[in-house]
Every structure is written in C-alpha cells, then in structure tokens.
Design brief:
The protein is of the alpha/beta class. It contains 9 helices and 35 strands.
Length: 617
Amino acid sequence: MKPVQFQIAAIILLLLSGEAFAQYPDKTQQIINLPNRDTISLNGTWKYIVDPYENGYYNYRYQPIDQQENASQVSEAIFNDYHPTYKTDRVEYDFDQSGELTVPGSWNYQDDKLFYYEGTIWYRKKFDCHLPKSGERMFLYFGAANYETHVYLNGKKLGMHVGGFTPFNFEITSFLKEKDNSLVVKVDNKRKKEGVPTLNTDWFNYGGITRDVALVKVSETFIRNYCIQLKKGSLDQIEGYINLEGKDLSQKITVEIPELKLKKEFTSDENGHATVQFSLTKAILWSPENPKLYEVNIIAGRSKVTDNIGFRSIETKGPDILLNGKPVFLRGISIHEENGIRGDRAWSADDAKMIMGKAKKLNCNFVRLAHYPHNENMIREAERLGLMVWAEIPVYWTIDWENESTYKNAEAQLSDMICRDINRANVIIWSVANETPVSDARTKFLTSLIAKARELDNTRLISAALEKHTITDNPPLFAIEDPFARYVDVLSFNQYLGWYDGLPEKCSRSTWTIKFDKPVIISEFGGGAKYGFHADKDTRWCEEFQEELYKQNLEMLDKIPQLRGMTPWILSDFRSPRRLLPGIQDGWNRKGLFSEKGEKKKAFYILKKYYDQKITH
Ligand code: GCB
C-alpha cells in the first residue's frame, strides 16, 4: 500500500476502533461482587518494560500502532519501531529478559528509579488456563490500574480504560489458549489537564496495576450486577434490580435469604433486566452497633451469586441524619487509600483491616474515603466493623469543567463506583466533588453528576466537600455561599482555621452562619504535626500545636446548630509530592492523627475524647 492510501486506511481504522474501544460506555458493564465469584487470580510477578516515549504504542510519526493495519499483532509487535512504509524483523524489546513487578502494587515503591516516574509501563503475564467449557464464559477483571490502561491478550487488543480507581473487565472466552497465554498491559499514569483528577492534587500519583487482576468464570447467561437494598424511606420493603447478560435474557430469577426463610421469584425482561420488590419482615437492620449482614443468594438458571448484604435506611429530616429512622451523629475521619508502612497504595484485605482498625480506635462510626473510589476491601471491612462510608470520585480542585469528555469520564467513574458498591449497607453518602471553585460551568458539571447519582441510586445521600466564604474579617464570620449547596442532601465543607487561616486561637473569635436547614458535616479540618516533635502549642509542626488546633476547632464547630458529623483531615500521614519541607514533611502530608508508621499523635486523644462524649447523645 502506498503511504497516502495507508494513511487513509489508518484513519478509517482509527475511527472504527474508537467506537470498538469506547472509553466511557453509557451503561456500566461491571461484573460486581468479585470476592464471591468463581475467579482465578493473576496477582503475582509480572514482567515489565519502562517506556517513557511510548515507543511500543506510537510509530515514528506518533500514530498509535495498535489502531493501524497490524492491530491484531500488536502485543508481539510493540517496540519494533514500526514504520508505515516497510515491515521489519528487527525487535527491540524483550519481556523475558526484563525485570519483574509485583501486581497489585504501584511501580513507584518497588524500584527507587521509578519513584517519581509518570508515564507508560508495559506489563506482561504469561499463564496457562483450563479453557471454558461449552456453556461457560471467561472475563478478565482489573480492580483498578492508574490511569489509562490498554489491554492485549495473545496479540488481540481487548480494549482500554480511563480512570485510576474503578474496576473494568473484558470478555476473553474466545481468545484464551490452554497454554502460554500472553497478557500484555500498557499502563500510563501521566497526569492530564483534562483528566479526572486533573494535573494538580495533594496525593501521590501511584502508577501501575494497583488492584487485583483475576479471570472470572461465569455461565453463558450470567448475573452481571444487581441491587438488593431497602426502598427509600422504608424499614421493611426491598426495592432493587438484577441485570443478566447472555443468550437467555428473559428467564426466572430466584432471590433467597436463607436466615429469614425468604424465597422470591422474578422474571427478567428481554433485556435481561428484572425489577425486584418484596417485604423483609423481622430483619435485623444494619447499624454501627450491630453491623448485621445476611447471606443473599441470587439464582438465574446456572448462574448463582451469593453476597452478604445489610439492610438499613438513611435519610435526612431538617438538620438531622436519620439512620434506620433515628438521629445519628457521624463520628468520622478522612482516609487516603495508602499503607504508609509499605509506602504504597493499600489494596489487600489486610491493609483494609489495619486502616479501618485505626478508625475504630478513634471511636469512629463513619469514614470519608477520600478523594477517589477506594478498593472493595476497604468498604467491606468498614461494613463488617460498623463504619458508615462517604464515597467520592476524584473531581478535585480545578477540573476542565467545559470539556465534554472530562464530564463523561467523571460520570463513568461515578457510575462504576455506584454500581460496584450499591449493595454495601454502610455506604450512606456519594460525594461528587472536593473543593471546586465556583463558576457556572462547574455548577452545571456537578448538578449533572448529582442527577446521574440519583438516577442510579435514589436511596443514598448526596454531598460534596465545599469551601467556606468569609463574610467579615473582624470579627471573623463565615458562611457557605456556594450556589451548589442547594442541590446536596448534606451540606459539607472543608475549613482550615488555625492552619492555612490564622492560628488556632482564631477559632475562639470566629462564628458561623449557615442558612440551610440541612445536616452539616465538616468534611475537613486539621493541621500538620511531625510525630515525636514536641514544643509549645504555638510552634508549628509540633504535636502540641496540632493538639491545640483540634481543641479549638472542636469547640468552635460544636456551636454550629446543624452540625451532625465531621471527618477531620486525616487518619494517617500520607505521601504527597507537594509536601517537601526537609526534616518535617520529606514528601508526606503531616496532618495525620497517626504517623505513616502508625504512631499516635497527641491530637488523636483530643478527637477520641470528643467522640467518646458524642456517643451518648
Ligand atoms: C484540602 C484538600 C486535601 C488536602 C488538604 C491539605 O483541602 O481537600 O486533599 O490534602 O486540604 O492538607 O491541605
């Protein structure tokens, strides 16, 4: 083919493949409840190649190789310096001779040379596998990879995914071999202006395959996702759905809760969708005091899924948050998904136990999982321990509000988070943003996200961490003036009196006027302290300063009449490339109540004491 013809063909292919690998599908394709599916783990050691110039993806004209003529060969052809006018036998890569990374795990903490690396790494895993029998299908599932991921199996591109914190899957039934499958994955964690999050964040940009990878075996027609939860406002009526995928979409589906001797039947429509409604009598409701879960079985022909589900209601009434009809104060803490001892993203059940155990020590009944969807172990462990959850998407600071594809990306992350966790009783709040600057474009973006969240789940509360507004400086008087405040169920805001705004004593001179008849949650307050650094309470970075800051803030905030909870910033010190003060920060945001190694700072005891008193009210 002559170069010009070739280029036209390439463009056509590019357009076609753009559709085939749709980044932000309208309907979530999630397979949920991985912990209880028939899976084969692909965790472990993977070969890797660092590719800062994306030589394995773009040719010398910077055209993506895998969207051109030889797309089906791509995983074998990467790094061949592919030239459109001639083919070459020359090979300039070799997975076999390359190093190994452990999956899950970011690459940053596994090799000093990769600590600040932001770019592409190619992974390869070889595996043998029993081929699916007739009537069975196989999917490849990633818990998450940060940020943009392209996946190839045995030379065939399966697709791509954008977003670092949500799961994705591809069907691989017809591409599998019995022996020596070659799974090649390109992960790129370059920050992008139009990304979600965008260029600037206050957390570490861990790159790579950061959560579990597994093969999932299902039957030809299978239960993809479902929601079995209490109907909004009810303590005994279940309302939900079940979605099947496959050939026999319209069929009988049974839902059983053996402990309650319940067995109900439903019929799915021609799209595989069934609406579920039934009464739940004499069930013990899920609560922090008694985080009761029931085994729930869903059976559709040969497809059976078991989940452990709790039932509870969550509502607001004026300024009150009602859990199972009773007012509750949210004794919370903000958390990043990080294991500071390892110095990496948290991903495992053990990581989740360690982190949530600390929140329990503070006497929390609530956690804010900031600033992106955390892995499923975190939510399930919190549910087991009786911790309610605020879940959030990385619409953080200065997103590209006018960009349609940025919106689609944010909406896909929101939808995927909701779909994955919709059966978790402890999730009570979906948050759509953190500290976003007020503008019409921003408010439109966020109200569209809220509409989507309500369409997918009309039972949970919606919020966003907003910012305060100064009405007068002297005496300091603050309010929440953000126009977006009227759309949320729970009015939440971050404020840093005593740290970014004055010294802790400013709290005693400050007052708040909040005109909304809604529950108020302080989604962040806090200040930095280096564990083990002791001085007087006026010396920044010492534990005594942070202790005083907590005392003063709690006294001030407690006077807000609508105050119904808080999630101070933050449980543990966390890595942030913005925090470089030598000897103090050294790359860590020091606002933790625990150090990254798990040592308690003095402020821990102040918050715990406050929560101990709150428990009686
Ligand atoms: C904030 C952000 C949070 C930061 C924190 C801080 O307002 O929401 O992501 O880490 O302040 O430490 O400055």
